[in-house]
Design brief:
Layout (H helix, E strand, L loop, with lengths): L5 E5 L4 H17 L4 E6 L6 H4 L5 E4 L7 H14 L4 E4 L6 H7 L4 E5 L3 H6 L2 E3 L7 H6 L23 E8 L4 H5 L8 H13 L3 E4 L6 H11 L5 E3 L7 H10 E7 L2 H9 L2 E5 L5 H4 L6 E4 L28 H9 L1
Parallel strand pairs: 1-2, 1-4, 2-3, 4-5, 5-6, 7-8, 7-10, 8-9, 10-11, 11-12
Helix pairs in contact: 1-11, 8-9, 8-13, 10-11
Length: 330
């Protein structure tokens, strides 16, 4: 096979999904150092280009908008005219292989979704969802490279750690809230955790995105103006600012959300709250990344595998905060 000049990678989802996709792109770049990678993604995730130099160009395709079919036609047209040598798609829809076939791109790689995928893809890769998502995505590129990149890597620069500092990000994406996917604590519980962390003598920085404004304001109101507590909401101009703050912190405490993946990407000790979602699929099995969960809740994880929205009881989010403090101090 001649070394490709241009590769199209297709991965739709939130910014967290794009961060999880980075190891696959990293291995492609290691195999083909001079290749140009274009990443087709949803408009809400285009900031991935600010977090990684692996992506040379982004192609924004609004597959969840009102005109999603027109958006897919736009993707098809751009793929057909982009002179790509290879295409990799993470989609599990059975029509994805057909879409890739009509792009006219010679080498096509996607997940095995049945007979059609095995017939018209260059290689249909077995889909194993029961593993860390980065590993799942990475399997797409194994037909063309022996390089293995385990975790996402975000280059936030050479930043010195601030001793005894804790960055707390309580939010989740607005889309999760709209779809009734409750994956985090209330502002009141986060405020109580802030107080308990402060009692250990650590300095706490509170951060959040535009979707977290109400939650942040409530936490600040409850905690009050106390020593070693600083509200950094509104100080970050972009996602790289958040990555730099995360790298500076000694510890990150967050929910199952994009900031957790940033924590992994910059290598900061991360404590992540998991309620109804499956930590085995979303965070590496590594002592640097610690899961906060209700070990006595037998019905978790349930989101996606058993249900599309979270339940009303949310027993999985009822966690003793003193146990969380023990985890942090250990």
């Amino acid at each position: 096979m001649k070394e490709p000049k241009k590769i199209l990678a297709i991965n739709f989802g939130g910014i967290g999904d794009e961060i999880l996709f980075l190891p696959a792109l990293s291995s492609l770049k290691k195999e083909y150092p001079n290749v140009e990678i274009t990443l087709a993604l949803e408009p809400r995730s285009k900031s991935i280009k600010d977090l990684s130099n692996l992506v040379d160009d982004v192609m924004c395709i609004d597959v969840k908008g009102k005109n999603k079919y027109l958006a897919l036609l736009n993707l098809l047209f751009k793929a057909m005219t982009g002179r790509f040598d290879m295409v990799f798609s993470s989609g599990a829809n059975k029509l994805i292989p057909v879409l890739l076939f009509f792009t006219g791109i010679k080498y096509r790689y996607g997940f095995d979704t049945g007979f059609l995928s095995r017939l018209i893809l260059t290689k249909a890769v077995k889909l194993n969802k029961q593993q860390y998502a980065s590993k799942m995505y990475h399997e797409l590129v194994t037909p063309v490279t022996d390089y293995k990149t385990e975790y996402p890597q975000i280059d936030a620069g050479d930043i010195e750690k601030e001793p005894n500092s804790v960055l707390i990000h309580p939010g989740v994406s607005k889309m999760s809230v709209q779809k009734n996917m409750v994956k985090t604590w209330s502002a009141q519980i986060w405020a109580e955790l802030v107080k308990k962390v402060l009692d250990t003598g650590k300095k706490v920085y509170l951060i959040g995105g535009p979707d977290d404004k109400e939650c942040i304001e409530k936490i600040v109101e409850i905690v009050g103006d106390v020593p070693n507590f600083e509200n950094l909401y509104g100080t970050t101009k972009n996602i790289m600012d958040l990555a730099r703050l995360t790298k500076r912190a000694e510890i990150l405490i967050c929910s199952d959300s994009a900031p957790m993946h940033i924590g992994v990407g910059v290598g900061t000790k991360t404590f992540a709250l998991f309620g109804p979602t499956d930590e085995k699929k979303l965070i590496p099995d590594n002592e640097n990344y610690v899961v906060i969960k209700n070990k006595n809740c037998g019905c978790r994880p349930c989101l996606w595998d058993k249900r599309q929205t979270t339940c009303d009881k949310l027993e999985c989010l009822k966690i003793d905060l003193d146990e969380v403090i023990k985890l942090i101090k250990s």
